[in-house]
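Lecture notes, part 5. Sequence design as translation. It can be helpful to think of inverse folding as translation between two languages: the language of shapes and the language of residues. The source text, in structure tokens, appears below.
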């Protein structure tokens, strides 16, 4: 069985071609610029040339590309966009129009002339196929596609994106499926998760496709590290370029979660919050008031965690000072999780493991190659 796993972040897109007939360490992989960075680069080129832009395609990750589009508008240049592409900037299209973007239908977009056309999508399967083909690898016989993206979700008017996102996380955990509750077959992705749905729909329609939130995928992938897997209780943290998400786990049961904006944290703040998360004393309002998404304690219990495992491109935020997980006990140094020898592939390995849960027909092959996941 071959699985193409793509973890789409703000800085990079991490790509793994998993083959159950190979050792995991021999899986083919790439770390490439993220789609939002590629679009931002193209927008800046259009700004320098003074060209009008037409955005089409799907809803994708914003951040760098959204900032570049705003600068293009501030420079006095025009931006046209189809509705789905425009939701990259905001799910509320009235707010997109207020920024200066001119919304057009698909038919109107086709008839526009004198514009530089940019197609937006988090998963560019044709580009990935071309990259692998350059090295004699054919993606035509991939059995399953798995993609991870971060999705705030389409909050109703007047509802905070941060609250909506965190309420979504809490509702998924209420299902009792743990980290795998954040993974869906393409046909079952919640309607409110517009970016997740768009990414999954960018995969070939004839391949089973799984979509998952990035941070839970990275944490699930971190559990493939033997040291993390063997811990009875641990705090596992994914420090991403834009968001930091931590899970307090006991035998893979989720006891608590924390989500914050990485740019608003320093090492001391993050260590203190992890200590409170492990103790079950970190409150949702405390995190939200600090402009984070929130915190949740599923099952208050005496803290017994003995490991802080960290992954993600900004993991150096936790370098240096140890974390005191249990009051009165010795503090522990954060451990950089390295699933199958490569931290950057943590999210991809989480996608592979999630596929074994989401698609029963894939369980035996994946578990045979990686070992049992439970």
């Amino acid at each position: 069985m071959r699985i193409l796993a793509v973890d789409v972040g703000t800085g990079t897109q991490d790509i793994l071609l998993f083959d159950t007939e190979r050792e995991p360490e021999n899986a083919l992989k790439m770390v490439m610029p993220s789609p939002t960075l590629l679009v931002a680069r193209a927008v800046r080129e259009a700004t320098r040339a003074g060209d009008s832009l037409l955005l089409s395609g799907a809803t994708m990750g914003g951040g760098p590309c959204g900032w570049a589009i705003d600068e293009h508008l501030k420079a006095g240049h025009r931006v046209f966009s189809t509705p789905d592409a425009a939701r990259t900037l905001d799910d509320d299209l009235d707010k997109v129009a207020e920024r200066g973007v001119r919304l057009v239908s698909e038919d109107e977009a086709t008839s526009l002339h004198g514009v530089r056309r940019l197609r937006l999508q988090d998963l560019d399967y044709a580009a990935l196929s071309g990259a692998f083909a350059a090295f004699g690898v054919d993606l035509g016989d991939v059995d399953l596609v798995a993609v991870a993206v971060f999705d705030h979700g389409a909050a109703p008017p007047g509802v905070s994106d941060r609250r909506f996102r965190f309420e979504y996380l809490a509702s998924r955990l209420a299902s009792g499926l743990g980290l795998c509750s954040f993974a869906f077959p393409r046909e079952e992705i919640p309607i409110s998760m517009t970016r997740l749905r768009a990414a999954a729909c960018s995969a070939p329609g004839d391949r089973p496709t799984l979509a998952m939130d990035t941070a839970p995928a990275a944490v699930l992938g971190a559990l493939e590290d033997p040291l993390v897997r063997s811990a009875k209780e641990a705090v596992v943290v994914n420090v991403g370029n834009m968001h930091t998400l931590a899970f307090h786990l006991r035998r893979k049961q989720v006891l608590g979660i924390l989500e914050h904006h990485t740019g608003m944290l320093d090492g001391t703040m993050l260590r203190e919050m992890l200590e409170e998360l492990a103790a079950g004393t970190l409150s949702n309002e405390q995190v939200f008031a600090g402009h984070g998404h929130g915190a949740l304690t599923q099952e208050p219990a005496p803290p017994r965690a003995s490991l802080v495992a960290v992954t993600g491109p900004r993991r150096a935020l936790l370098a240096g000072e140890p974390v005191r997980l249990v009051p009165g006990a010795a503090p522990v140094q954060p451990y950089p999780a390295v699933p199958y020898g490569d931290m950057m592939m943590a999210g991809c390995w989480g996608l592979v493991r999630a596929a074994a849960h989401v698609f029963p027909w894939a369980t035996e092959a994946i578990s045979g190659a990686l070992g049992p996941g439970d």
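The translated text above is only one of many valid answers, since several sequences can fold into similar shapes. Residues 55 and 277 are 42 Å apart (CA to CA).
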